């Protein structure tokens, strides 16, 4: 039996990550994606909103994480461990950094895989959602 979805209007938000801290921004994005900012939040329903992230390549981290933070991927085969540094990923794949940080802040279940599809990341200023009415996310 399928759960009933909330019949709420979905809003579109935009967040500019230029000179913002990665972790703090990821927490705020995950909160809006899940719908926890709404008074009608229900944990098992898709009640979140859509988010457009711009300037993903200009995100910052605190301390010495720029040089020391590593991302590990393991294929499951012997010798299949890949290690990539934050500063290299920031240049080549900034979208992966943001998506991975936001996924880390969300619950580990099937619903989070659906909710992450409502996140649109752009490495520069320009985005393709100019026809939508975008609201700025309030920073805490």
In words, what does this structure look like?
The chain is α/β, with parallel strands linked by helices and 140 residues long. It has a single domain (12-136), classed as Ribosomal protein L13 (Ribosomal Protein L13p, Chain: A). It contains five helices and six strands. A four-stranded parallel beta sheet has the order 5-2-1-6, covered by helices on one side. Strands 3-4 form a two-stranded antiparallel sheet. The N and C termini lie far apart (39 Å).
The CATH class: Alpha Beta
Output the radius of gyration: 16 Å
Instruction: Please give the domain count.
Output: 1
CATH fold naming: Ribosomal Protein L13p, Chain: A
Q: Give the tally of β-strands.
A: 6
> Could you tell me how far the N terminus lies from the C terminus, measured between alpha carbons in angstroms?
39 Å
> What are the secondary-structure elements, in order, as H or E?
EHEHEEHHHEE
Number of helices: 5
Structural class, please? Answer: alpha/beta
């Amino acid at each position: 039996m399928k759960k009933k979805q909330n019949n709420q209007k979905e809003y579109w938000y935009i967040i500019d990550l230029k000179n913002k801290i990665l972790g703090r921004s990821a927490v705020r994005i995950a909160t809006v994606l899940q719908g926890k900012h709404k008074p009608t939040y229900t944990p098992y329903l898709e009640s979140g909103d859509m988010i457009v992230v711009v300037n993903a390549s200009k995100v910052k981290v605190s301390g010495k994480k720029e040089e020391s933070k590593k991302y590990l991927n393991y294929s499951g085969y012997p010798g299949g461990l890949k290690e990539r540094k934050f500063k290299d990923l920031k240049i080549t794949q900034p979208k992966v950094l943001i998506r991975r940080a936001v996924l880390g802040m969300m619950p580990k279940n099937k619903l989070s895989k659906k909710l992450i599809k409502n996140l649109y990341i752009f490495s520069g200023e320009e985005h393709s959602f100019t026809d939508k009415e975008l609201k700025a996310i309030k920073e805490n």
